[in-house]
Design a protein that fits this description.
The chain has 226 residues and is of the alpha/beta class. Helix content is 27%, strand content 27%. It folds into two domains: 112 residues, Diphthamide synthesis DPH1/DPH2 domain 1 (Rossmann fold, 3-Layer(aba) Sandwich), CATH 3.40.50.11840; 85 residues, Rossmann fold.
Length: 226
């Protein structure tokens, strides 16, 4: 366990890593026409990236380990995007690599699930759907006069400074909403607000919710310095 102080509160981090996992069987199913691979994973499988690298290199691939990524931060993977032609995410569920799908510019993204032993590829059509959805939200945002800006108080997600700056400069009637747990169903209570700008986890989705990153036009906005 690791203990440190965050925002004046003593915080204890408890590792939740998968044990006795063999990543080779699922990687044997990986069929790629490219040679340069970026390896990423959720924290549960971070200790298996070296094993994956050794196996993939034995098959003739050039492998770069990006390391851990979370659903709201793909910066480790983005740093190596110019070195790779494809990403392989070792983990389960699409929550984490969806951030990478949105912001990397890499079309070849694969999810290798070592538990189910399945390989999933995010195809270009799905990426195009996400892009069209984002453009639609931007157009809707431009038409409304009153917006709500969502801010999480959770350490690592808190972007109050960025939210206040955006509220001042956006040219709209803007209200900042802060919460520890953001429940999108509760947003319906404020029916005079037609569009919400999210500065919290980018996986917070809804038809009337758009990420601040998408509005300001930078895929790598650092909310802490914006």
């Amino acid at each position: 366990m690791e203990s440190k102080e965050i925002n004046g509160l003593k915080t204890i981090f408890i590792p939740a890593k998968a044990k006795n996992i063999d990543v080779v069987p699922v990687l044997k199913k990986l069929k790629l026409d490219v040679k340069r691979i970026g390896l990423i994973s959720a924290v549960q499988y971070i200790d298996y990236l070296d094993d994956a690298k050794v196996f993939l290199e034995s098959k003739g691939f050039e492998v770069f380990i990006a390391g851990q990524m979370v659903g709201c931060n793909s910066s480790n993977a983005i740093k190596i995007k110019d070195k790779v032609d494809a990403y392989v995410f070792i983990g389960s569920g699409e929550f984490h690599p969806l951030e990478l799908v949105n912001y990397s510019g890499i079309d070849e993204i694969y999810l290798a699930n070592p538990v189910s032993c399945n390989i999933t590829k995010f195809d270009k059509k799905e990426l195009e759907k996400l892009e069209k959805k984002k453009i639609g939200k931007i157009k809707k945002y431009l038409t409304v006069n009153k917006i709500g800006i969502l801010v999480s108080v959770k350490p690592g997600q808190n972007a109050l400074k960025a939210a206040l700056k955006f509220a001042e400069n956006c040219g709209k009637e803007a209200y900042v909403f802060m919460a520890d747990e953001i429940d999108i169903n509760r947003l319906e209570d404020f029916n005079d607000i037609k569009m919400w700008v999210n500065t919290s986890c980018p996986r917070l989705e809804g038809n009337n919710i758009i990420s601040l990153k998408d509005i300001v036009g930078s895929k790598l906005v650092d909310y802490h310095t914006y």
